[in-house]
């Protein structure tokens, strides 16, 4: 009895030490994973839901109608984390029966050896879209075998935050009771307040996906004076894997629209005016991008600051 137990404990410890020396693999980077969503699944879903919302914005009565007014940028920050945990949990109880039936003396001893490996992957990008963005092939259904089920609720996020970006009227009413910079008060691109466009109102949201799976195994025996490995403790050997994906989205409206192209043979003044307008437009786009990036950073930091 003693030798098989020793071999089992040694094998479990060796497996644990081997796991501690290797990095956990990402389920969702490239291989098809039936449980956790892949990077491509989430990236495709984000773009598809934005295009779906854009297609619905053509209805003047839709809460998404503000998307027809100007250009928008969205900063997308996706972090994927995987954590592996392993443990060996030996327990042993010594039992000394007393002469009186049903009574005994019990002494218990236990030990624990555990290991953890953690790895993260991040991808961040910014998209630019407006009412002229093609939406014909808007939303392709998730491939079979994808770990992403349902939707990300991006349409609801846009509908909830759009009125604060555009100042549009809705059944709730006008959102601001004072002039709002970037909405009712537009600043010139040359304004000293970081080119003005950086103060554009923005809105965003954080979405988490967490998948935890694991198990435990091990023998249990009862002798006259000894019992070993209480099954309620999870077994002699246990292992658990945690996949956590965090998606942070931040939207902002570009303050200026792209200028129309100049005439085929523009005059010097027309060329100069077009160049000035185009530069102001590019500064406005850059300011909106900075605004969404700053908001994404704030939302990430708020998560760390939360109790």
Descriptive account of the structure:
The chain is of the alpha+beta class and 307 residues long. It has one domain. It contains four helices and eight strands. Helices cover 29% and strands 28% of the residues. The protein is elongated.
Please outline the helices and strands.
Blueprint: H1 2-20, H2 39-56, E1 72-88, E2 91-97, E3 104-110, E4 113-129, H3 154-166, E5 202-217, E6 221-222, E7 226-228, E8 237-253, H4 268-305
Antiparallel strand pairs: 1-4, 1-8, 2-3, 2-7, 5-8, 6-7
What class would the helix/strand composition place it in? alpha+beta
This entry's quaternary arrangement is single chain
Estimate the helix proportion, in percent: 25-40%
Cα(first) to Cα(last) distance is 50 Å
Order of helices and strands: HHEEEEHEEEEH
Number of strands: 8
Biggest β-sheet, characterized? 4 strands, antiparallel
Strand content: 25-35%
What does the radius of gyration come to?
30 Å
Given the structure, what is the number of helices?
Answer: 4
Tell me the overall shape: elongated
Task: Give the number of domains.
Answer: 1
Summed over residues and divided by their number, the pLDDT gives a mean of: 77
**Which consecutive residue ranges, at least 5 long each, have pLDDT under 50?**
141-145
Side by side, the strands of the main sheet go: 4-1-8-5
